[in-house]
């Protein structure tokens, strides 16, 4: 049995003449608000207020930015305006101070020097720890290069 797969699902159906349902609601809402303004306000004031409302309703119904409806732009504007903003990084111009190289302060770091005997003790302790915790290799079969006694 064959089923029909719907095609052109991105295109809205024209319900009211050449207008889709959303377009009709936007235009009817703008017209309704402007009629209410003309009833309750003087004509001059009603015209001043109704013109931007009608332009906004027309933009919502017909204007597209980057092939997306204008309502998406309005939604993004409202979200951006009402939500809190997080600034992660703000670059500051710093003037170099005398005694600095390439914007980094000069620091004196104490590096301890190991004598030969301390270095030998350190390697000895590392070798012992390695022999106590052998890896997957067999530690007894490795040849030793020094004269230390083998560990058990």
- Contiguous low-pLDDT stretches (5 residues minimum) are none
What radius of gyration results from the CA coordinates? 39 Å
Query: How many alpha or pi helices?
Result: 4
> Termini separation (Å)?
78 Å
Spatial strand arrangement across the major sheet: 1-2
Helix content: 40-55%
Number of strands: 4
Q: What would the principal axes of the Cα set say about the shape? A: elongated
Structural class: mainly alpha
What is the N-to-C succession of helices and strands?
A: EEHHEEHH
Beta-strand content:
5-15%
Please summarize the sheet with the most strands.
Answer: 2 strands, antiparallel
Let me know the average pLDDT: 79
General description of the model:
- By secondary structure, the protein is mainly alpha-helical.
- The chain has a domain at 14-82.
- The protein is 46% helix and 6% strand.
- It contains four helices and four strands.
- The chain has helices at residues 21-40, 43-62, 70-82, 116-132; strands at residues 14-16, 19-20, 64-65, 68-69.
- The strands form two sheets. The chain has a two-stranded antiparallel ribbon.
- β3 and β4 form a beta hairpin.
- α1 (21-40) runs antiparallel to α2.
- The longest helix is centred in the N-terminal third of the chain and has 20 residues, at 21-40.
- The protein is elongated and about 105 Å long.
- The mean pLDDT is 79.
């Amino acid at each position: 049995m064959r089923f029909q797969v719907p095609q052109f699902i991105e295109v809205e159906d024209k319900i009211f003449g050449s207008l889709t349902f959303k377009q009709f609601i936007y235009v009817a809402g703008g017209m309704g608000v402007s009629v209410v303004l003309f009833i309750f306000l003087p004509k001059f004031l009603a015209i001043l207020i109704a013109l931007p409302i009608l332009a906004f309703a027309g933009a919502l119904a017909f204007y597209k930015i980057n092939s997306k409806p204008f309502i998406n732009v309005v939604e993004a504007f409202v979200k951006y305006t009402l939500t809190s903003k997080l600034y992660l990084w703000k670059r500051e111009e710093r003037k170099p101070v005398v005694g600095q190289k390439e914007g980094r302060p000069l620091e004196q770091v104490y590096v301890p020097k190991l004598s030969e005997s301390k270095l030998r003790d350190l390697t000895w302790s590392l070798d012992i720890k390695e022999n106590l915790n052998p890896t997957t290799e067999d530690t007894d079969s490795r040849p030793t290069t020094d004269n230390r006694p083998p560990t058990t």
